[in-house]
Amino acid sequence: MLRDQAKPVLLAGLVGLISLIKSDHCRDNGFASPDNYTHLCYSDIPALFGSRGLNLGVNPYQDSVNAMEYPVGTGYIASTLARFSDSYLQFFDINALALISLLIATTFLLWKITPRLWYLFPLAPAVASSLFINWDLWAVLPMLIGFCYLRRERFDFAGFYFGLSIAIKFFPVFLLPVIALYFLLTKKREWFAFASYLVVTWVALNITTAIMYFDGWLLFFTFNQDRGVDLGSLWYAASLLGLDLASLISPNLATLLLVLIALASAWRVWGKDIKSAKSLDSESAFRLLTLLSFLSLAFLFSINKVYSPQYVLWLTPLALMAMDFGSKGWREGRVWFWIWQVGEAIYHLAIWQYLVEYSGGTGLSPTLYALSILIRIASLGIFAHQLSRARLSLPSRGND
């Protein structure tokens, strides 16, 4: 048993060490641009140490103009680690070690949740390449813990961990409609405990900053509302190909409309079944929850104004949970998973080479970068489609 438990720890630790070695060139060169793009080791972490005042030891939200453009959880994690750092290089080192620890913890948790598939997370090239781009793993781990407590029907703890994850990175807020559906399908009355703990946790972590530094606290929301189309998005790819879709319709409005259309379509497909169903057993409902959670974030990222490279850290664990079903699992699933991950790897190579070109060096042309965006989103769509067919047992799917 101890030998089995050591496997995820050792594999994740090895992947984290390799990723750290890969970043060594950038560290030796001060993360200078475009060298950090050429060697595929760009990170937001050292860049924000000085530009957001983390080196000054002040509250990261007190300057309304130059506040951290992240939720308070990320801001205070970064500012706390900055207190132990004398330079941006030391700040990167401390954060990298923390993120490797989180990778090990996340992999170990996936080993507990999906004992047949956990290894796909650390072995995915795009996952390993994304570890040190930003602080996402700080939020991914509590989200997964929240799913574990949902499965164990400890809804108070589940609400706490989802509230914590939202306070760090906010993405899990888009899973709340799916979780509401889970409670509707299982007809469990503990939804109030889940919602109460989530709201209280989020408010408790935000209220002081919102009162004392409201403008800085609000910056995260206004920044994401006002930002234009950005790297990785379909919108950005279209602009590089000469199609200015953003001038035809606001990306914010288009995203809202597409989300509403998706919800309406889902209700049209499943609404009658939901209304007529007595209730699903907890395990079946949880499996449906994992699928819809993956599809929700995959859809959101695909239509969003920005699709950052590290978003694969959110999708991959959800995909593994959604793939883990049936007595033998989804045999064909690993093939489709790797098709998606190849698309991610192509994009991870392309974005940095495009930024070399964007910075004035010799890199990837805008047209080829746009193509890499389309490949990435198409490969995700293909995997999501095949996973949905398998999980929902559509007529076109063969037997397990």
Per DSSP E runs of 2 or more residues, the count of β-strands stands at: 0
Number of helices: 19
How confident overall, as mean pLDDT? 89
Biggest sheet character: none
Report the structural category. Answer: mainly alpha
Radius of gyration: 21 Å
- Count of discrete domains: 1
State the separation between the terminal residues, measured CA to CA.
29 Å
Helical residues, percent:
over 70%
- Runs in which pLDDT lies below 50 for 5 or more consecutive residues are 394-400
- Order of SSEs: HHHHHHHHHHHHHHHHHHH
Broad shape: globular
Oligomer: single chain
Strand content: under 5%
Q: Could you give a quick summary of the protein structure above?
A:
This protein is 70% helix and 0% strand.
What does this structure look like?
The chain is an all-alpha fold and 400 residues long. The chain has one domain. The protein contains 19 helices and no strands. Helix 14 packs antiparallel against helix 19. The relative contact order is 0.11. The C terminus is likely disordered.
Question: Which helices and strands occur, and which strands form pairs?
Answer:
Blueprint: H1 2-22, H2 24-28, H3 35-38, H4 44-51, H5 72-82, H6 88-113, H7 120-123, H8 125-130, H9 137-151, H10 155-169, H11 176-186, H12 191-212, H13 214-226, H14 234-240, H15 251-276, H16 282-303, H17 312-323, H18 333-358, H19 366-392
